[in-house]
């Protein structure tokens, strides 16, 4: 049996902009492009329940982040039948996004903000625990699901590159975190399913990948605080300042030497 090439089913782009103070709201801009059967499902939901139901559904996506989540602008839905695509555009304000970290005095000294995946996490069903499997694992149609989460920080932030790729023939999951520059961090995920089934002997590999999708895609940032101010944590910012001063000093010395050579 010929297995079709994987098609892009879901492409998620979330942009989070955090304000300069602990009390500043966070703004989230969302775009999700649905294709193939996923686009059909959104179209059917829109036809059956209307825009109001979809508005509530996507608003609930972020209600776990804060007690107060509001729309910056009305949800926009764009259907492109020629491309088999339905696009969702949303924009949200998250009041008091930062949560105190730790307990006691520590809770007054650090805060954190976290956002989790809501798109890839439910695509593959976990297997029954301790099941002695004899049948193949059904994966569904070959497909690709992507998510890009962009964090725009209020000040230079320490972050490190990371890359995790887990692959079994027919199933591949990739997650990366990339600091684009000192004030922007990007997390990318991609799930590629290129087979219709996996053999029962691959149950362990399947469960491992599913668990990674469930456990890993939470991006969290934290900061020391002083009153309502986010305080830089670590020495990178000061080190960068010292390096900049040293470079300026070296340039001045070099210019002085060059000027002296012309006399």
Give structural notes.
The chain has 263 residues and is an alpha+beta fold. It has three helices and 14 strands. The chain has helices at residues 36-60, 203-215, 236-261; strands at residues 7-17, 26-35, 69-80, 85-94, 99-100, 110-116, 137-138, 143-152, 162-168, 171-181, 184-193, 197-198, 218-226, 229-231. Strand 13 and strand 14 form a beta hairpin. The radius of gyration is 24 Å and the shape is globular.
Beta-strand level of the residues, as a percent range? Answer: 35-45%
Shape: globular
Strand arrangement, major sheet: 3-4-2-1-8-11-10-9
Give helix and strand order, one letter per element, not per position: EEHEEEEEEEEEEHEEH
Q: How many β-strands, per DSSP?
A: 14
How many alpha or pi helices?
A: 3
Derived structural class: alpha+beta
Distance between the termini: 84 Å
| Overall helicity | 10-25%
**What ranges have pLDDT less than 50 throughout 5 or more consecutive residues?**
234-253
Q: What does the radius of gyration come to?
A: 24 Å
Query: Mean pLDDT score, rounded?
Result: 85
- Sheet having the most strands: 8 strands, mixed
Key terms for this structure?
263 residues, alpha+beta, 8-stranded mixed β-sheet, 4-stranded antiparallel β-sheet, 3 helices, globular
How do the strands and helices of this protein lay out in sequence?
Layout: E1 7-17, E2 26-35, H1 36-60, E3 69-80, E4 85-94, E5 99-100, E6 110-116, E7 137-138, E8 143-152, E9 162-168, E10 171-181, E11 184-193, E12 197-198, H2 203-215, E13 218-226, E14 229-231, H3 236-261
Parallel strand pairs: 1-8
Antiparallel strand pairs: 1-2, 2-4, 3-4, 5-6, 6-13, 7-12, 8-11, 9-10, 10-11, 13-14
């Amino acid at each position: 049996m010929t297995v079709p090439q994987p098609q892009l089913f879901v492409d998620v782009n979330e942009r989070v902009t955090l304000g300069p103070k602990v009390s500043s709201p966070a703004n989230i801009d969302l775009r999700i492009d649905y294709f193939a059967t996923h686009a059909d499902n959104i179209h059917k939901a829109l036809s059956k329940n209307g825009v109001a139901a979809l508005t509530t559904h996507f608003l609930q996506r972020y209600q776990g982040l804060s007690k107060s989540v509001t729309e910056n602008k009305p949800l926009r839905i764009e259907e492109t039948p020629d491309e088999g695509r339905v696009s969702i555009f949303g924009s949200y304000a998250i009041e008091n996004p930062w949560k105190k970290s730790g307990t006691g005095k520590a809770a007054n000294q650090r805060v954190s903000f976290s956002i989790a995946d809501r798109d890839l996490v439910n695509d593959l069903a976990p297997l029954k625990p301790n099941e002695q499997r004899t049948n193949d694992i059904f994966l569904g149609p070959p497909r690709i699901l992507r998510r890009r989460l962009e964090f725009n920080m209020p000040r230079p932030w320490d972050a490190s590159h990371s890359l995790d790729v887990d692959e079994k023939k027919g199933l591949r999951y990739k997650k990366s975190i990339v600091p684009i520059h000192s004030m922007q961090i990007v997390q990318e995920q991609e799930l590629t399913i290129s087979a219709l089934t996996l053999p029962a002997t691959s149950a362990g590999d399947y469960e491992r990948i599913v668990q990674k999708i469930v456990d890993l895609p939470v991006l969290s940032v934290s900061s020391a605080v002083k009153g309502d101010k986010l305080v830089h944590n670590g020495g990178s910012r000061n080190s960068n300042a010292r390096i900049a001063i040293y470079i300026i000093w070296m340039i001045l010395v070099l210019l002085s030497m060059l000027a002296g050579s012309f006399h």
